[in-house]
């Protein structure tokens, strides 16, 4: 609908046909009947929704009442196995985006806009005060900020291999986290595949929010050549994801746990990678996260038939969150 977007002064995003055709083949086969309605959401940005994650370091009482007036409600409820009282996120049933806050030097932002499904990996990780935490692929930083809304880690190591993205990560941290705390965060640009060897058995919790096919943004690639190249290189992503996970397992202390997440529907990058890890690493066990999924099932739509240690959020109209794959493992 060109009219609506004209009103906002932005040209309508164009669907990249090459990517859509590729997804069409793969996802119709993998997801069956569910794919048609998922496709309708992914290809129609006007129905997308954005959650508002409040920043506890810059709390404003007006913000919560403004959100309530605009019809927002808390995304997560007390029935969750893990929900720190300091962690507050609001969502609305209707599409659209709360206004973005501009970066102001020396002033912390009051909230972060994001896909509500991207908070599920953080809730699955269950970080507690004093634990040593590694966010292995941390940019742009939304999940790092969310972890710090939940608890105060002993050590917090945020890593991002890509130079440009790591600058983005640093800016996010500066926009949301106050001075004394920022000094406790170590930001590095190491190759995530090598961190396990460089920092063996150093962390209680590791988040691997892996580089993946970003279904939502790939569908709107404006550069056909870049899109085609992405689709060719897509086959190599699963081996990178596997290596990142192996590295993360080495970096974990025995008894520690890790959460793996992606923002793709692709089975090759999701359950296949986790199954490969479970079959090849004798020192990891799957962790049941079905209680968490059950507790949020009124706000999120999940693929049925997944195993207890994993979930896949499927976007649908009115609950346009995801795609987001989450799996949890524990090191023995």
TrEMBL record:
Binding site for S-adenosyl-L-methionine: 137-143, 160, 191, 209
GO cellular component, as recorded: mitochondrial large ribosomal subunit
PANTHER family recorded: NCL1 YEAST -RELATED NOL1/NOP2/FMU SUN DOMAIN-CONTAINING, TRNA (CYTOSINE(34)-C(5))-METHYLTRANSFERASE, MITOCHONDRIAL
Assigned protein family: Belongs to the class I-like SAM-binding methyltransferase superfamily. RsmB/NOP family.
Domain SAM-dependent MTase RsmB/NOP-type: 38-332
CDD domains recorded: AdoMet_MTases
GO biological process, one term: rRNA methylation
Pfam families: Methyltr_RsmB-F
Source organism superkingdom: Eukaryota
Keywords: Methyltransferase, Mitochondrion, RNA-binding, S-adenosyl-L-methionine, Transferase
Localization in the cell: Mitochondrion
SUPFAM superfamilies: S-adenosyl-L-methionine-dependent methyltransferases (SSF53335)
Residues forming the catalytic site: 263
A GO MF term: RNA methyltransferase activity
Name listed for the protein in its UniProt record: NOP2/Sun RNA methyltransferase 3
